[in-house]
Amino acid sequence: MAAQPQPAPPAVEARFADLCKELGLGEGVSGEAAALLDEVKGALLAAPSVGGRSAKDAERLCFAFVLYCAVKLKGRKESSGVRLCEILMGCKLKYDDFFKKMQQLGLKIEKILESRYGQDWEGQLELKQLEGLVNLLADASRFYRKAYNELFSSASTDQEPGLATNTPDYILFGWYLFLMLRSRSPELFKDLVSCIHGLVAVLAILLIHVPAKFRCFTIEGSSHLIKQTEKGVDIVASLCHNYHTSEERLKEMMGKSHKAIEDFFGMKALSVSKCKTENLDKIDTDGLMCFKGLIDEESFQQNLEKLEKLCNSNSWEGELDLKLFLSNDYVPSAENTSGGSTNLGCSKRAFETLASPTKTIKNMLTVPCSPSSPASGGSVKIVQMTPVTSAMTTAKWLREVISSLPDKPSSKLQQLLSSCDRDLTNDVTKRVSIVLEAIFPTKSSADRGGSIGLNCANAFDIPWAEARKMEASKLYYRVLEAICRAESQNSSVNNLTPLLSNERFHRCLIACSAELVLATHKTVIMMFPAVLESTGLTAFDLSKIIENFVRHEETLPRELKRHLNSLEEQLLESMAWEKGSSLYNSLIVARPSLASEINRLGLLAEPMPSLDELVARQNFHVEGLPATPSKKRAAAPDDNTDPRSPKRLCNESRNTIAERNLQTPPPKQNHIVSTNLKAKCQPLQSTFASPTVSNPVGGNEKCADVMVQIFFSKILKLAAIRIRNLCERVQYVEQTERVYNVFKQILDQRTALFFNRHIDQVILCCLYGIAKACQLELPFREIISNYKREPQCKPEVFLSIYVESRNRNGVLGSRHVNIITFYNEVFVPAAKPFLEPFTSGTRPEDKKNASSQISGSPKPSPFPNLPDMSPKKVSSSHNVYVSPLRQTKMDLLLSPSSRSFYACIGEGTHAYQSPSKDLAAINSRLNYNGRRINTRINFDMVSDSVVAGSLGQPNGGSTSLDPAAAFSSPSKKRKPDT
C-alpha cells in the first residue's frame, strides 16, 4: 500500500491566525494585524532569512513585529490588553532578539507603516525607549543577582537542575519587593542610579531579616561589612561603600520601602532593638527597622506568593513582565546591553576584542581611586566596567565633586560677568533657570496638558527633577568659570562681552551639562537628542562646545568623557547633516557655491526659539521676563544666521542669502587643512558668532569659515579611523590612503554629497569605488559584511539612504534606497573625477614612495597623528598583535634614544617556526601599517577621546587637526561644488 503523502504545512496566514487566537486578540486588532501582514510579508519574508537567521526565525520576528505594530498603533485605541512580553512569549523570542532586528524590519516597510499610521509611527511604537528600559532592568537585575550571591547562599533559581536545596527563595522575595516599590514610586526608578539605590535598600532589608545561617560570610573579618562603629557593624555605611551609593539617599529609599511594606502587608515597622534576634549580633542597630513575621518560616511562603500576585497584576511599564528579568535565560546578554561587558573567557574572542579600538576601551577600563582626580598619579586598579559600575562611580563624582559646589556663580565668576560692558550676572542666572526648567520640567503633566510616555519628561518626579536641575546648574557654573578664565588669557580676546552675551553659547553649555547629568543617572525618560529639542538647539550647535567642555572640566570621569565622545561621533557622522541643522547656515556663508543647493533642498535651520518662547512652552513665569512670547521676535545678535535670512518651509524662496553671498568676494580657497592650526587656537567668540560676522582674530574670513574648517577637520579625523579599520577588516590595508584621499576630496569639493546622509555611506562607496578602479576582488557584499562588525554599524546606513527624486509632475521629493543603488545613481557621477586617476594602476607618487622605503623596516604610518591602539592586530589572517613596551620596562631595557622595540603577543605565524622567522614575518606585515612609537602611550589611562581624536591630542601630541597632514600631497585649489 502506497504511503500517504504528508499534509502540507499550514500557510503563513493560517499560522498567524492561530497565534492571534492563542494570544486572545480581539477581532478588530486581529483583522488589522492580518491586513498588515498581507501587505508586508513580501518585504519581510521574501528573503530566506533576516540577518542570517533561518526562515522560521525570520517568520517569528515578522509575526512579533506585525503584532506589536497592530496592537500599539491600533489596538490601544480599542483597549487591547496584549502586551509586548506576551507577544514575545507567543513567538518564542527574547527581548534582545526582538529589539536587535526591529529597526531593520522597520526600514524595510517604513513606507507601508507611514501610509497606514502616519509619519510618527516610529515615535508611537516607542521601541527605542522600551529597549532602553529593558537594558536598564537587565543591568539592574544582573547587579542584584551578583550582589545577592555575594551576601547569601544561592537560591534554587540560580542552581543547576537537580541541585536544588531547601534554601528559601529569598532572592525572589527581594526582587518582588523591589518591583512593589517600583509600582508605588515609578517616578523614582526611571534611571539606573535610582534602581541601584532601591536594590541596595532591599539588600539591607534582607540582611536584617534573613537568618544568619543563610549568609555567605560571618560578621568577624567580613570583607562585605567593613564599616564599624562602637556598637558594631554599620550595615548601611558598609553597603554604601561597597556599591558607591549615597548614604542619605539609601536611608531615604529604605524609608520608602518600610512604608510600602507597612501598607501592603499590614505590618508595623519596629525598631531593631525591640526585636533583637541572633542574626543581628555584632551589628549596630541604631536607626534600623524590622518587621515581625516578614520572613519567618511560617509566613515566608505566604508573603512570597502575595508579592508574586501583586507583580502579576501590576506592572507600571505595561509592555514588560518584570518578574522574568531575574531569569538568566530571559534578560538580554551583557554584550547586548548598552555598555555591557564582554566575556573574555575565550582567548580568540579576547584577541578580537583587543583588536577593536572601541571595544578595547570598553573592556579594559581603569577606575581611579578618587573620583575627584581621575588623572592623578595615584594607585589605579583595573576593573571590568559594567553599566552599573559606570553609573555608580560617575554618580559618586557628581555627588562628591559637583553637588558640593555653590548653587550660584562663584565670586570669581561674578567678577568676570560684572566686568563686561554691562553686568551679565542676572541674565546668566535667569537663563539657567529657564533652560533647565525646559529640560527638567517640574510642572505636572495635567497643568501642562501633556501625557506621560516613556520618553516624556513630564514623568519626572518633582524632587528628582529639582535635584537634577541643581546638579546641572552647578556643573554649568563651574565649566563657565573655567572657560572664562581660559578665554581671558587668550591674547586674541580683548573683551569677554561678545562671548558672555551670546545666547547660543550659554544654551549649548547648559545643554551639555544637563546631558551629562542625564547620562550619569542613565535615565530612560529623556534620551539623547531630547535635550536638544527642549532647548531649541541643533546637533551642529552642540558639537561646538563638547571639546571645550572636556578640556575645561579636568575632573570629568572617563565614562562621561566616553559619553561625550560618543555624542560627538553621532553629531559628526549624521546628525549635523540632517535637514534643519545650523551647519547649513554656516555653509551657505563659507561656501557660497552651495547656497543654491541648500536653499533648493530647504536645509536651513529655523531660528532658535527665544527665552520667552521657552517660558511660554513650559507655562511658568520668570520674574523680569514676559509670561507669553512676543508675537514679533527680534533677531538675537548671536543667532546662527543673518537676521535677514529667510528661513521658512522648503517651498518658499530662499534666494536672499545666496544673492548677497554671491555678491561678496569669496574667501581664499585654501584647502581645509591649511588653516587647521590657526583654527585650533580660535577663541570661542569666533566659534559661536554669527556666520556672517568677520573673524575678530584677523583676516578677511568670516566666522563661518572658522566653524566649517574645524568641523570638517573633525570629520576627516573620524573618517580616517573608520577607513583604516574597514580596510584592515577587508584585508586591503594598502588602499587606506587612497580611500581616505578620495573621501577628503569629496568632502572638500562635493560637499553636497553629505547632505541628509551619513558619512559612513560615503566611506563605504569610496572603498568600493577604489576597489573597482584598481580591479580588486572586493564585492559590496563583502564590504557590508565587514562593516556590520564595526561598533558604530546601524542597518539604516546601508539599507536606507536619502536620494532626491521627482514625481511625474516634477515636484521635488525624496526616496530611500540601498547602498548599491546610491552608489550607482548618485555617488559615481559625483566622485568619478576622483576615482579616474586610479584606473590606470599605481600612481607615480605611489611608486616613488614605495621605492624610497628601506627593505625590512616598517614604513611611516599614513595616519601619523592618529593614536596607536595597544595591542594592535597586524595580521588579518593570524592572531598576531604588537604593543609598545610599558614605559617602566622600556627604561630598564632601552637607552633613551632607542624606543622602537615592540612586545608581541599571539600565535606564531606558522607552525614549528623559529622566533626569529616569526619576528621577520611580523616585521614584513608591519610594512603597511606599522610605525615607530615616538610618543609615550599611557597604558593606565586610555580614553575614547584618544581613540576618536576629536577631543584633543593626548600627551602633548600634534595639534594638527588633519589626520593625514603628514603625507598629503600639495593641495590644489578647491574647486566649487557643481
Describe this structure in words.
The protein is 50% helix and 4% strand. It has 978 residues and is mostly helical. The strands form five sheets. A three-stranded antiparallel β-sheet has the order 9-10-11, covered by helices on one side. A hairpin with a 6-residue loop joins strand 9 and strand 10. Helix 9 crosses helix 10. It comes from Urochloa decumbens. InterPro entries: Cyclin-like_sf (IPR036915), RB_A (IPR002720), RB_B (IPR002719), RB_fam (IPR028309), RB_N (IPR024599). It is found in: Nucleus. Pfam families: DUF3452, RB_A, RB_B.
Brief descriptors of the model:
two-stranded antiparallel ribbon, three-stranded antiparallel sheet, 50% helix, 42 helices, mainly alpha, globular, single chain, 978 residues
The helix fraction, in percent, is 40-55%
- Mean pLDDT across the residues is 74
Largest sheet: number of strands, sense, barrel closure: 3 strands, antiparallel
Q: What overall geometry do the principal axes of the alpha carbons give?
A: globular
From the N-terminal CA to the C-terminal CA, the straight-line distance is 78 Å
Point out poorly predicted stretches: 155-166, 338-382, 445-458, 624-680, 847-860, 887-905, 928-976
Rg for CA atoms: 30 Å
Oligomer: single chain
Number of strands: 11
Question: Strand order within the widest sheet?
Answer: 9-10-11
- Strand proportion, as a percent range, falls in under 5%
Structural class based on helices, strands and sheet pairing: mainly alpha
Number of helical elements: 42
Keywords: Cell cycle, Nucleus, Repressor, Transcription, Transcription regulation
InterPro entries: Cyclin-like_sf, RB_A, RB_B, RB_fam, RB_N
Domain Retinoblastoma-associated protein A-box: 386-587
Biased composition (Basic and acidic residues): 641-650
